Amino acid sequence: MKNLYTMYGEDMQIAKYNASGNDFVIFHTFYELDRSKLAQELCHRQKGVGADGLIVLLPQGEYDFKWQFYNSDGSVASMCGNGTRACAHYAYTQGLAPKQMRFLTGAGVIQSEVIGSVVETELTTPKVLSESFEENGLTWHFCDTGVPHLVTFVEDVALFDKMIARQMRYKYNANVNYAMLEENALHVRTYERGVEDETLACGTGMAACFYSAYRQKRVGQNAKVYPRSGEELFMRIEDQTLFFKGAVQKVFETVWEH
Ligand SMILES: N[C@@H](CCC[C@H](N)C(=O)O)C(=O)O
């Protein structure tokens, strides 16, 4: 079986995935190692494959598998919404898990279902981290959808200000989202911690914007969400459980020669 003995320092079979604009390198292995340096190398846009994050699937007795998730700067993150959809598709197509799977992440157990090229994930229970507050002339909502997110609602997402986003990211150690409401849809732009830039999509960020809008009764239990990439995703909430659905794409598979 390919990839059973993958270790850092050997040739590795890897896949590159795109999940609504958030891109990932994914592989599976039996060996649990610190892969922070490998994440930086693989994710490098010029010298590597290029990705926002690295996902490593490992065996786990109780669940279909467990993952290690690294941002492109090598930092570990407990959750990545788009990453859950990409890795569920990878696990199913590699024969590592059935269509409906449960896997362990740093934030807890995730359930995903693969429906062709679309994947729906049930995220971890969202938590409100603080009362809403004013800063930089904006109102901020702070919640955790697996990782911490600041959310501000604006008239137009073109008002996304990277300087403010970066400053808020470091002050609160959180990802930062600007969201625009349009009927029952949200347009979202996210500055991601660990990528240290705006990405084309952030799943837990879209979930945080949806959850904040839902708590304020600005959207119903279902809403469409559009990240910077313009792709369409679907959010819903049932009894405090967030579901997040959208297409993913395997871009290519290759052997990474190290
Ligand atoms: N892109 C992800 C979030 C990845 C983790 C984040 N950058 C952090 O370090 O908190 C998503 O789709 O949720």
What does this protein structure show overall?
Mean pLDDT is 95; it is low at 1-5. The protein has 258 residues and is an alpha+beta fold. It is globular. The chain has a 17-stranded mixed β-sheet that branches. It folds into 2 domains: 12-123 and 247-256, Diaminopimelate Epimerase, Chain A, domain 1; 127-239, Diaminopimelate Epimerase, Chain A, domain 1, CATH 3.10.310.10. It is built from 4 helices and 17 strands. The protein has helices at residues 36-43, 81-93, 162-172, 203-215, and strands spanning 12-19, 22-28, 53-58, 65-71, 100-105, 108-115, 118-122, 127-135, 138-144, 148-153, 175-182, 185-192, 197-199, 222-226, 233-238, 241-247, 249-256. The protein binds ligand LBFN2T5F. Ligand LBFN2T5F binds at residues 22, 71, 77, 80-83, 147, 175, 192-194, 202-204. The ligand N[C@@H](CCC[C@H](N)C(=O)O)C(=O)O binds at residues 22, 71, 77, 80-83, 147, 175, 192-194, 202-204.
Give a short synopsis of this structure.
GO terms for molecular function: diaminopimelate epimerase activity. With 258 residues, this protein is α+β, with helices and mostly antiparallel strands. 17% of the residues lie in helices and 44% in strands.
